[in-house]
């Protein structure tokens, strides 16, 4: 069972959690009261010097949270104004009770005029919004942004889709967001992550068993999900037990990407790493690699002989390899083995993606695809163009279609498995967006596959370790310095201990 800190609930799942909590005998108004009190406490702590709190309350239960917060702020001695969207007489029962208990008269939303010293508490829509915000709300969002008032959002900044993280017409940019029980996908997916600011998750008292019963297979990526599958060094461990990773390189002038992948694989814990390359590239590789071995592989015949003779555990193909038939032939020969497919190898199947998918649809997942958005669109053009689906849904559909684990890269990298599991990563710093960083990621994932980690866990852990290495690298990092920060998970765990 995932913890509330790891689980992610979509707005629909959270609604079912609320309903199940009420059905179990918990007071739904009591939950609203705790939520609103948590918002007020967060506001007083973060904005102790605020001259006035302007609480903007919407037509649903998010507005109810706002009315509770307004009452608690007034009881704490703060100056508070309340502005209302919609007819309070049409509020749901709990929100209506919160409105009745609030001692501050509600004024129309359109009448709000920000003034210096205001802190805006956005309790208009929360995570459940599924359509563009009304023009009256868009006008208030613009007014608040122009006045540069800090915004504390209740559950999610109004105007964001809680499931997809997309802006629905217009959205507040919050300095802080207070949500309840678990984060939602919209807190992590771009551009939602940028608009949420600092996120605080409050436990308002819904039992964990209820949350777990309604949660799907989406979670926050981190060691809680895959830590138990990570390789552990034992007294009898030797290099072959730690796996032999093979990374394929392109010609002499295009070896840099493969060298990054191979070095990352070695640093991530693979016992042996070999770069397989055209004969003409061997002098360049031999002059620039030390602990990484090199092997001449010019054609499918040489590859077939190597596969028969050597004990090879996993493969990385794509970084700097070149686009074309040779890549497709090599992938077909490797299709029964654990394989990371990246960059040029992905593009090589752009005109014939079904040829790739047919190789991996049967048997346990052994393919990890690591596309950025452009590469994703080459293999899955229909999914890429589907604006109705968020990144997790597109990634999952791609995993089901391809039979492989999809790592859809970006600031909000999503990892999806054919069996329905989805993770969203959040530990990657912005400076990770640099040339060559994807080659490093491919090598880390390949090293974990080589050590026997299942494909989904290898992909997820690789993404997280990649982000951790970038954090250690710091701003100004390049791929060459990033790869030196790569460490096995066990080494990071020992350091943390």
TrEMBL record:
Binding site for K(+): 62, 122, 158
Domain YjeF C-terminal: 222-493
Protein name: Bifunctional NAD(P)H-hydrate repair enzyme
Organism domain of life: Bacteria
Required co-factors: Mg(2+); K(+)
Cofactor mode of binding and number, as noted: Binds 1 potassium ion per subunit.
Binding-site list for (6S)-NADPHX: 61-65, 126-132, 155, 257, 320, 372, 439
Phylogenetic classification of the source organism: Bacteria, Pseudomonadati, Pseudomonadota, Alphaproteobacteria, Hyphomicrobiales
Gene behind the chain: nnrE
């Amino acid at each position: 069972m995932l913890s509330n800190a790891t689980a992610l609930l979509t707005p629909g799942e959270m609604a079912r959690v609320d309903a199940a909590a009420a059905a179990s005998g918990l007071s739904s108004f009591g939950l609203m009261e705790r939520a609103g009190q948590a918002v007020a406490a967060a506001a007083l702590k973060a904005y102790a010097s605020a001259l006035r709190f302007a609480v903007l309350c919407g037509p649903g239960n998010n507005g109810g949270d706002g009315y509770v917060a307004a009452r608690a702020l007034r009881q704490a001695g703060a100056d508070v104004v309340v502005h209302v969207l919609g007819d309070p007489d049409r509020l749901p029962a709990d929100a209506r009770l919160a409105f009745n208990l609030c001692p501050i008269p509600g004024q129309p939303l359109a009448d709000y005029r920000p003034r210096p010293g205001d802190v805006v508490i956005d309790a208009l829509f929360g995570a459940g919004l599924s359509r563009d915000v009304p023009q009256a709300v868009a006008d208030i969002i613009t007014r608040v942004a122009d006045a540069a008032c800090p915004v504390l959002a209740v559950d999610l900044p109004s105007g964001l889709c809680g499931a997809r993280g997309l802006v629905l017409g217009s959205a507040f940019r919050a300095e802080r967001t207070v949500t309840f029980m678990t984060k939602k996908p919209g807190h992590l997916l771009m551009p939602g992550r940028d608009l949420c600011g600092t996120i605080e998750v409050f436990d308002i008292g819904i039992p964990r068993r209820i949350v777990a019963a309604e949660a799907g297979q989406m979670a926050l990526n981190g060691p809680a999900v895959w830590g138990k599958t990570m390789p552990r060094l034992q007294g009898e461990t030797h290099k072959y037990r730690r796996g032999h990773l093979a990374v394929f390189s392109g010609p002499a002038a295009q070896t840099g990407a493969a060298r990054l992948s191979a070095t990352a694989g070695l640093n991530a814990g693979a016992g042996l790493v070999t770069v397989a390359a055209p004969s003409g590239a061997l002098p360049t590789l031999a002059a620039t690699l030390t602990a990484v071995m090199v092997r001449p592989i010019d054609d499918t015949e040489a590859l077939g002989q190597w596969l028969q003779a050597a004990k090879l555990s996993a493969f990385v193909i794509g970084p700097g390899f070149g686009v074309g038939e040779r890549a497709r032939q090599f992938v077909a020969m490797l299709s029964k083995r654990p394989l990371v497919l990246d960059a040029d190898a992905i593009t090589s199947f752009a005109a014939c993606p079904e040829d790739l998918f047919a190789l991996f649809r049967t048997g346990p997942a052994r393919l990890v695809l690591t596309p950025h958005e452009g590469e994703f669109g080459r293999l899955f053009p229909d999914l890429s163009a589907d604006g109705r689906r968020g990144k997790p849904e597109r990634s999952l559909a791609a995993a089901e279609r391809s039979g492989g684990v999809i790592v859809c890269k970006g600031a909000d990298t999503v990892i999806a498995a054919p069996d329905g599991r989805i993770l969203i990563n959040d530990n990657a710093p912005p400076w990770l967006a640099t040339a060559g960083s994807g080659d490093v990621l491919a090598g880390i994932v390949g090293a974990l596959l080589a050590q026997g980690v299942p494909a989904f866990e290898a992909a997820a852990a690789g993404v997280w370790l990649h982000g951790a290495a970038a954090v250690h690298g710091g701003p100004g990092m390049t791929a060459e310095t990033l790869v030196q920060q790569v460490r096995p998970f066990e080494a990071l765990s020992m350091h943390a201990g």
